């Protein structure tokens, strides 16, 4: 479906749960985690009905996210069911990778096409700090197993945090040399509550280019995603820069989002939400159309002092 501003909407992101096995400080800061009653969470049947309605309206790509999608009981079955909906051309998943070494092969057999894995530091102690207790070995093992399992393209997501991981930019970039893995740096977004980060944590994507200025980066054509792409000469993978704060990509936005409590969000940074819980297939399709129709041209400017109007933290939206 084409929205009011001429954008073709072809991508649905589904947050399967707002729960997580980590506590990243910018996503689920201490004291902000509310427990939703089970009855508020969207059912598997409703998710499939939403996917069918979305495909009917021209959506071709689905991404499963969370919270952490791999803690969802029945995740393998959910992947299988979504992939078998006619019209779903690509099924992707974003994960913190902690459970990936156990699940990667089954996910692939169930029909999952692509995986993005989040990792904000390569240092054991820093990783533990930023994730509220995570063990980096689990994620590195998850990346290895997923790579060997043969997913189309593994992408690593690194949230850029000034004073925390800007000294690791080159180490991350070097991860693209030997394996066909992309590393994407994402600007930290000032959500409703992004923890105890001060102004200096919110650094622009251009810092990455500055830090890599001696590496003769080549510009690569975009792959249909929102990242600007570069490559270290002869590297197998790419370096991506995602700049939702300093150079937003609203004019190219092709997505809508379904939250774990059954709300469609036409825009990540707006408080507009449309409930689809408890609806039948026909009503579901109407509501999706309404959501696409309501997509704003762009979101308000984001900055440390002008925070997202989403009224939710990222674990409740899915990124
Ligand atoms: N748990 C999974 C994971 O961490 O990949 C999926 C959900 S997580 C909300 C999706 C993505 O959003 C992750 O890459 C995470 O780093 C990113 N994210 C969360 N809060 C963010 C923020 N305030 N700014 C930028 N990215 C954020
Ligand atoms: Fe969990 Fe992902 Fe949020 Fe980290 S970013 S707390 S792993 S949902």
Q: What string gives the helices and strands in order?
A: EHEHEHEHHEHEHEEEEEEH
Q: Return the CATH class.
A: Alpha Beta
Which range best describes the helical content: under 10%, 10-25%, 25-40%, 40-55%, 55-70% or over 70%? 25-40%
Bound molecules: S-adenosylmethionine, iron/sulfur cluster
Fourth CATH level, the homologous superfamily: Aldolase class I
Largest sheet: 12 strands, mixed
Task: Give me the Rg, rounded.
Answer: 19 Å
What key attributes describe this structure?
319 residues; alpha/beta; TIM Barrel; binds S-adenosylmethionine; binds iron/sulfur cluster
Helix-strand layout with pairing:
Elements: E1 11-15, H1 44-56, E2 61-65, H2 75-83, E3 90-95, H3 100-110, E4 114-118, H4 124-130, H5 136-149, E5 154-160, H6 169-178, E6 181-187, H7 206-211, E7 218-220, E8 228-231, E9 239-242, E10 255-258, E11 263-265, E12 274-275, H8 281-293
Parallel strand pairs: 1-2, 1-10, 2-3, 3-4, 4-5, 5-6, 6-9
Antiparallel strand pairs: 7-8, 8-9, 10-11, 11-12
Helix pairs in contact: 1-8, 2-3, 3-5
The structure holds S-adenosylmethionine and iron/sulfur cluster (SF4).
């Amino acid at each position: 479906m084409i929205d009011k501003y001429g954008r073709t909407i072809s991508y649905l992101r589904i947050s399967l749960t707002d729960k997580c096995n980590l506590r990243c400080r910018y996503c689920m800061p201490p004291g902000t985690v509310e427990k939703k009653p089970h009855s508020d969470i969207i059912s598997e049947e409703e998710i499939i009905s939403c996917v069918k309605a979305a495909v009917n309206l021209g959506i071709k790509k689905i991404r499963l996210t969370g919270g952490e999608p791999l803690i969802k009981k029945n995740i393998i079955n959910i992947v299988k069911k979504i992939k078998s909906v006619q019209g779903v051309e690509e099924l992707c998943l974003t994960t913190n990778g902690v459970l990936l070494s156990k699940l990667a092969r089954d996910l692939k057999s169930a029909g999952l096409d692509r995986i993005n894995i989040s990792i904000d530091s390569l240092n054991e102690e820093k990783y533990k700090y930023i994730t509220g207790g995570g063990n980096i070995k689990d994620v590195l093992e998850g990346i290895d197993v997923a790579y060997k399992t043969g997913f189309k393209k593994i992408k690593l997501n690194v949230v850029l945090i000034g004073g925390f991981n800007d000294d690791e930019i080159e180490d991350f970039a070097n991860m693209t040399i030997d394996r066909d893995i992309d590393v994407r740096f994402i600007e930290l977004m000032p959500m409703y509550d992004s923890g105890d980060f001060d102004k200096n944590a919110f650094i622009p994507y251009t810092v990455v280019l500055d830090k890599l200025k001696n590496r003769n980066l080549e510009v690569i054509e975009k792959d249909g995603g929102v990242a600007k792409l570069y490559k270290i000469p002869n590297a197998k993978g790419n370096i991506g820069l995602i700049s939702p704060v300093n150079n937003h990509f609203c004019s190219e936005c092709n997505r809508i989002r379904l939250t774990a409590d059954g709300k469609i969000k036409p825009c990540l940074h707006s408080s507009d939400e449309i409930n689809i819980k408890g609806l039948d297939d026909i009503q579901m399709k109407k509501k999706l159309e309404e959501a696409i129709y309501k997509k704003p041209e762009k979101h308000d400017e984001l900055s440390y002092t002008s925070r997202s109007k989403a009224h939710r933290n990222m674990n409740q939206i899915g990124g």
